[in-house]
Amino acid sequence: MHTYQVLIIGSGFGGQCAAVNLQKAGIDDFRLLERRDFFGGTWCQNTYPGAAVDVPSPLYSLSFASWPWTQMFAEQAELHRYTQHVVDRYQLRDKVELQADVERVEWDDSARQWQVFTRGKGTFRAQFLINASGPLSQPVIPAFEGQQRFAGTTFHSNAWDHRYDYRNKRVAIVGSGASAAQIIPSIAPQVAHLHVFQRTPHWVLPRADRHFGRFQRWLLGLKPAYKLLRWLIYWQFETRVIAFKYSKTALKLVQHQALNHLKRQVPDPVLRQKLTPDYTIGCKRVILSSTLYPALTRANVTLHGRDQGIAALDERGIRTVDGQHIDLDLIVWATGYDATDGVINYPVLGKHGTRLSDVWALYPRAYLGTSLPDFPNLFIVTGPNTGIGHTSALFIIESQMNYILDCIRTLKTQGLRSIEVRKEAESAYTEMIHQQMQRTVWKSGGCHSWYQSKSGHVIAMFPGFSFSYHQLTRRLKPGDHILS
Question: Tell me, what's the pLDDT at 340?
């Protein structure tokens, strides 16, 4: 049995941010639990060809850890190096327990502690539990008839097998979202033939990437210059909420830009029609790419729309709903993650044996997307309705830390043991979130996206400006909580 003041589940940016903020608050008695055998989260796990961030790197970085980025949209290898830089700079390696796969967590009311049961590393106890496992950590592979019969190679984009040589092979990519949009241009020139199975087309805008020269990187090494660039990018991106929520005219202008981008890069009207979405831009995640469309126009690439989708698999490949048979060597599942109903994938038992799965049976919900009634001292990083479609997720994570640290400090100052949000405060907050959501394109844009739970509620996104969320999390509201 290992006992700490704070346990953090996950070692990605959420876990790292929590750890550094605890250190800054003078709390050193914490441990990070990581299910994998390496430290670092998304940008160490996702190593598929073409993997890169889609928010400008100077903004997609932690405010307390600047970095001389080599390009505006950093690629996976550089993001991996940045992650390791944060880990080493703040001496977090000694604070992590690798291969500690959490099986379940239970609140012990008599001891006012969380018990965390892991596969491989035994049981841990802590007064506070911070779940930072991330919303994009549970890969989803849809079920098809005959799936087990396929004799070739298959893997999810989240677990790319670099031992497999895809050059001159017959390859299928199932999915056409953000990961697929990066993989397709990266491997299309090297494969014999690439079949892309697209259920729904996505809106695509040009990617304004650029490499930074030596002088620009030197400037980025200066704190004032770095902060200024972050500030400029932040406010430029923050204006996107106007289109997503407040102005249909602004949304139409952005959609017109996307249509022009499609027209310029795809001269074939039949292919262009297949790639034209029938919903409002922003309803699904907008893809930033200047290379996807040219890749899809290659002679060795075939785009299969919904009417040519997958009917079944067999030993040799895929049989489509319109009767084709496609022989394949490799199938890549670029089919996304369970980012709503599967935000936490292990059983959580709170006070009086309350099960999180029961509380979330209709749809996941949480006060500030972070805490829940009957689950004292539990904080969820990037929980329900904390996703952000227009700016850096790290800004939201750092905002959450204000609230989490304020809760911990308040208990410490008052000599108390537990804090939980009141039911009425959580209900009022959740009602406000879904009322505000009605005005957004994610709710009214005419699509079904991974932003929505099975209930139809938009769970992944926060319906407003990120600075509004920052204001909400700036400090603890004691009246909204039970302290004991």
Answer: 63
Both tokens of 174, joined, read 């199932």
Q: What is the pTM of this model?
A: 0.95
pLDDT for 356 equals 97
Residue from 429, 436, 427 nearest 461 by CA: 436
**CA neighbor of 286 nearest in space, from 382, 389, 185, 387:** 389
Exposure string for 340-354, b = 16+ CB within 10 A, e = fewer: bbebbebebbbeeee
- Overall fold of domain 2-39+92-138+338-483: FAD/NAD(P)-binding domain (3.50.50)
Taking the C-alpha atoms of residue 454 and residue 436, their distance in angstroms, rounded to an integer, is 20
- Write down the residue that tokens 């790639």 correspond to: 275
What length is written for the chain? 484
Structure tokens at 58: 């100077």
| CATH code matching the domain that covers 147-202+239-333, chosen among 3.50.50.60, 3.90.1150.10, 3.20.20.70, 3.40.50.2000 | 3.50.50.60
Mutual angle of helices 393-414 and 13-24, in 10-degree steps: 40
3-state secondary structure the chain: CEEEEEEEECCCHHHHHHHHHHHHCCCCCEEEECCCCCCCCHHHHCCCCCCECCCCCCCCCCCCCCCCCCECCCEHHHHHHHHHHHHHHCCCHHHEECCCEEEEEEEECCCCEEEEEEECCEEEEEEEEEECCCCCCCECCCCCECHHHCCCEEEEHHHCCCCCCCCCCEEEEECCCHHHHHHHHHHHHHCCEEEEECCCCCCEECCCCCECCHHHHHHHCCHHHHHHHHHHHHHHHHCHHHHHHHCHHHHHHHHHHHHHHHHHHCCCHHHHHHCCCCCCCCCCCCEECCCHHHHHCCCCEEEECHHHCEEEECCCEEEECCCCEEECCEEEECCCECCCCCCCCCCEECHHHCEHHHHCCCCCCCECCCECCCCCCEEECCCCCCECCCCCHHHHHHHHHHHHHHHHHHHHHHCCCCEEECHHHHHHHHHHHHHHHCCCHHHHCCCCCCCECCCCCECCECCCCHHHHHHHCCCCCHHHEEEC
Which residues of the chain are under the pLDDT cut of 70? 136-137, 339-342
Picking from 270, 277, 269, the residue whose alpha carbon sits closest to that of residue 203 is: 277
Q: How far is it, in rounded angstroms, from Cα 441 to Cα 164?
A: 40
Q: Quick one: pLDDT at residue 116?
A: 98
Cα 329 to Cα 152: distance, rounded to the nearest angstrom: 5
d(CA 3, CA 123): 9
Q: In which residue are the tokens 């695509």 written? A: 204
CA distances (Å), 207 to each of 196, 258, 261, in order? 21, 11, 11
